[in-house]
Specification:
The complex is a heterodimer of chains A (330) and B (258). Chain A has 330 residues and is an alpha/beta fold. Chain A has eleven helices and 14 strands. A six-stranded mixed beta sheet of chain A has the order 6-7-8-3-9-10, with helices on both faces. In chain A, 43% of the residues are buried. Chain B has 258 residues and is mainly alpha-helical. Chain B contains twelve helices and two strands. Chain B has a two-stranded antiparallel sheet. Classes of the chains: A alpha/beta (330), B mainly alpha (258). At the A-B interface, helix 2 and helix 3 of A face helix 1 and helix 6 of B.
Chain lengths: 330, 258
């Protein structure tokens, strides 16, 4: 997929990760009870290696934003420990915060300020003088497709532009860990895909990324690791492959060479086939089966298969199973 | 953060607020000037000659230091109270600072410095518009500068605490309107404590804003109800206590963090 116009994250390269580097994010037994008694986190532990791209998934109210708030200094934890690239958030809060760039879920900039000023002022809060920050801000706004809007007051931006402005603001001090709290929520498909490309370029350049999202396709497409949180507890964590392996069945889409979906369904009747259209059939492969056997059976019936692919959205099935079962246990 | 980086962050906070203050100057500078000119017209031209004088000081000259301080007090307080409240309540852009490595004392210093700059500018503007009515009399320039600076610092700190704790826009208007302005008026803007009945004298002396007005008047006119050192001591104590509270609250994130 070609990068969307104006979204170019290739210039933001980080120092290559070395063996023995501390974890980008290390969370141990993190607990948070809000003043109204809500127990948002119940002993969350999570380790994120440098250079990782991790998705934190969970239903609304699961505790995702609370974790991000604690790590970035916006929420006071009740107990537990957290460190960013080895810097403890309690003992070395300033150093830990210097490593982090955060894109919050809600818009949180002054809507009467100019786009350029928002980014340059943020650099100032990190001790970067204006003369150094200004060319960096120009470059970032260019890469995020906001250069034409740099002198506009931020309230005049569209929703997607405001999201990109928050990404530019978060990156101005070149953080090693970028934390994005549902950055593509409410963003149109074209911009979302543009952001995906931008994030892939960033992670390719060595930036560690922690992402929360409701779009499971997004997590499956972008991330190396996934952690699923429900009711303040991590219920699953691992690589995307590990998480998906929890499924005992996999949905496979078969694209046929001819319009013979009906015949294919008859030939594969023990695979719970479902006709998508005249040349496409979906089948379920259980733990003991392989796609190869199904294709061989079709070829024996004189039906050619152009392509077999896993159905996107499998993660959604795992997510639903884990969060629903977990909720039911409570 | 290195000292230089801390300075850059401090400068950024101050610069950002100064840009705002200058952009909306009809809201930030004009009201105090208009109000003061009305006072000068009424007490200088209309009533002044009938009221007479305090000793050898014409009444209009006597009230000018108090009216300058009234402008300094309300402007430095309201500036910081509004900025802190708006940035935590409306846009939540206080988060820009809270997620950054800027130390709490730099955040406090930045907000306070902007409030001081506004308070001092407004004070000087009111002093400027008083000249056509009463001329310019400054007995001790250093005391005038000291009281402008200390008063705006103390009140800006008070404004910061008010902004942090306010839960609605009313919360930042109540104190300037119903507490500060009456305390300045009752702090001897229009009279000397000597002319008050005996019962009211100790009550006036318990009003911290009395020492602000009295000390500043001492600097401008060379007359005062109390020793300048008492006034400086009260103001320094008030500033120190408020600064410690402000630093603690920003550091702990009270009402700013969850």
């Amino acid at each position: 997929m070609a990068p969307a116009k104006g979204l170019d994250g290739t210039a933001w390269r980080q120092k290559p990760t070395q063996a023995g580097d501390p974890a980008a994010l290390s969370i141990s037994d993190l607990r948070k009870v809000y003043s109204n008694g809500t127990e948002a986190l119940r002993g969350v532990s999570l380790e994120m290696p440098a250079g990782d791209f991790l998705a934190l998934l969970g239903p609304n109210g699961a505790g995702k934003t609370t974790i991000i708030g604690i790590v970035t200094g916006l929420v006071n934890k009740t107990s537990g420990k957290a460190s960013v690239f080895g810097d403890d958030i309690d003992r070395h809060p300033q150093t830990a915060r210097r490593h982090i760039g955060v894109v919050p879920q809600e818009l949180n900039f002054n809507i009467f300020e100019k786009v350029f000023d928002i980014v340059v002022n943020q650099a100032g809060y990190y001790g970067i003088p204006r003369r150094t920050a200004m060319p960096l801000a120009e470059q970032l706004l260019e890469q995020l497709g906001l250069h034409d809007k740099r002198n506009d007051v931020s309230r005049t931006l569209s929703g997607g532009m405001k999201r990109r402005l928050m990404i530019a603001r978060a990156l101005i001090h070149r953080p090693r860990l970028l934390v994005l709290d549902e950055p593509t929520a409410g963003v149109d498909v074209k911009l979302r895909r543009g952001m995906w490309d931008f994030l892939m370029q960033l992670t390719g350049g060595g930036t560690t990324i922690l992402l929360t999202t409701h779009y499971l396709e997004e997590a499956e497409k972008l991330c190396r690791h996934i952690a699923i949180i429900n009711r303040g507890e991590i219920v699953a964590a691992g690589t995307v492959r590990d998480i998906l392996s929890r499924l005992h069945t996999e949905i496979v889409v078969l694209d046929l060479t001819e319009e013979r979906a009906d015949s294919a369904r008859e030939a594969l009747n023990d695979y719970q086939p479902r006709i998508v259209d005249s040349t496409t059939v979906e089948i379920e492969i259980d733990g003991g089966g392989t796609v190869g056997r199904a294709i061989t059976r079709l070829e024996n019936a004189g039906i050619g298969v152009r392509m077999a692919r896993s159905k996107a959205g499998r993660l959604e099935e795992v997510f639903m199973r884990l969060t629903t079962n977990n909720s039911a246990d409570k | 953060m290195t000292p230089y980086e801390a300075f850059v962050s401090f400068y950024t906070i101050v610069r950002k607020d100064m840009v705002r203050i200058l952009r909306i100057w009809p809201q930030t500078f004009l009201p105090s000037i208009v109000t003061s000119v009305l006072y000068f017209l009424i007490f200088g031209t209309v009533l002044g000659s009938r009221i007479g004088s305090f000793g050898e000081i014409p009444f209009i000259e006597f009230v000018i230091p108090g009216l300058i301080m009234l402008a300094v007090v309300t402007n430095s307080f309201s500036n910081v109270a509004f900025v802190v409240f708006a940035s935590k309540f409306f846009a939540r852009n206080i988060d820009e600072l809270l997620v950054s490595p800027t130390p709490p004392w730099v955040i406090v210093a930045g907000f306070i410095a902007a409030g001081v700059v506004r308070g001092v500018i407004v004070g000087l503007l009111v002093l400027g518009v008083s000249i056509p009515f009463a001329g310019l009399h400054i007995d001790n320039f250093l005391i005038v500068i000291l009281f402008l600076f200390l008063t705006s610092t103390a009140l800006a700190l008070g404004g910061l605490l008010n902004g942090v704790h306010a839960q609605s826009i009313d919360g930042i208007n109540i104190i300037p309107t119903f507490v500060l302005t009456p305390l300045v008026y009752l702090g001897g803007v229009f009279y000397s404590v000597e002319v008050l009945p005996e019962f009211w004298q100790p009550i006036t002396l318990a009003n911290p804003l009395f020492y602000i007005v009295d000390g500043f008047r001492n600097g401008m006119l060379g007359i005062a109800d109390t020793s300048i050192w008492v006034s400086v001591g009260v103001l320094l104590t008030l500033t120190t206590v408020l600064a410690l509270f402000a630093w603690y609250e920003i550091r702990a994130g009270l009402r700013l963090k969850q």
